Amino acid sequence: MDDAVLGYLTDEDLLNLGIKRIGDRRRLLAAFAQVGKDQGLALASAMPKASMATPHVNSVGLSFLPIPRFKTLVCGYPVRVQDYRLYCIEKGLPFPDQKNPTDSTHPVVNVSWHEGIDYCLWLTAKEREMDRMGNDQFYRFLTDLEWSSAVGLPNESEETPAERSKQKPGYPWGPGYPPRKGFGNYHQSLKVDDFEFTSPVDAFPPNEHGFYDLSGNVWEWTMDNYNTSRAYHTLRGGAWDFYGSGLMSSARNANDPNGRGTSIGFRIAFAAQDTLNQTKK
Ligand SMILES: [Ca+2]
Questions:
Q1: Quick check: 249 pLDDT over 70?
Q2: How far is CA 169 from the centre of its chain?
Q3: Treating both helix axes as pointing N-terminal to C-terminal, what angle do 113-129 and 81-91 enclose, rounded to 10 degrees?
Q4: What spacing in Å lies between the alpha carbon of 216 and ligand 1's midpoint?
Q5: pLDDT digits (tens, 9 = 90+) for 7-30
Q6: Phi/psi at 220 (nearest 5 deg)?
Q7: Residue 199 Cα, ligand 1 centroid: separation in angstroms?
Q8: SS3 letters across 93-111
Q9: Where are the domains of the chain?
Q10: pLDDT tens digit sequence for 111-147
Q11: Widest CA span of the chain, in angstroms?
C-alpha cells in the first residue's frame, strides 16, 4: 500500500477506515496490513500462478484469473452470498438484506463501498496470517481500468471514469443492442433471461477471459472515484434492473460510497503494491 492507492480514497474514506488524522495517511498501511513494519521495503512477493484453465483458488474458495495488460489477478465472479456470509459470521456482523437470501451462489447485494473495502481488509489480514499473501499484496476492488481490461476493452485514454463512460462503442455481447437471449441477467422488460432479481453468478457463460457475470446481474464497485469531485465512486457492469446504453462495456455508473442497493455488489482482485500504478505486464 502506498500513496498511489491513497489517491483512490477520499479523506472521508480514510476517516471511515479509522484513519483519524488526515495528515496521517500512512496509517492506512497498517489498516490493510495489520503488520506494516516492512511495508514498502520488502522484496516484491511473487504473484500466485494463475491461468484461465487453472485459476488461483484462495483460502475461502474464490478463484482468480489473469487479465490483459495488468499483473493483478481478478476474481472470476462477484463476491457471493456464501462468501460474504462467512465474513459476517467471523466478524459478528449482521448480514445485509437480500432479495434471495437463501441462494448462496447469488452475488451479495446491499453492501456499500466502505463495507466492501472492509471485506477486502479482513481477507487480506486473514491470508497474510496464513502466509498465503505477502505483506506487499492485498485484496481490493478492481481499478476502473482493470475492470475495462477484464471486459475486453482496449486502452482508454481519458483521465477519469466519468470521461471514459460510453466513449468506446459496443456491449459485452457485441456491437448491437439489445442483448441476445441467455447472455446475462438484465431488466425483465428485455425478456432475455428468466431472473426477476439476482441470479447465480455462473448462470450464464463466462467471457473470453474466463470471467462470469461482468455484464448484468449486479453493478460492481471499483476503487476509483467517478470524477474529480471525488464525492462518488465508480460502478461497472450493469445489473438485473438495467437496460439501454448503461449496459455498454464502457458505461460507468456512480454512487455515494456509503450507498447500498439491491443491484449493487462487488468483485475483488488479488493485487500487489506495484499494481496500484496500473503497471502493465
Ligand atoms: Ca432479469
A1: yes
A2: 22
A3: 70
A4: 8
A5: 566 666 666 555 554 444 455 555
A6: -120, 125
A7: 8
A8: CCCCCCCCCCCCCCECCCC
A9: 3-278
A10: 999 999 999 999 999 999 999 999 889 999 999 999 9
A11: 55
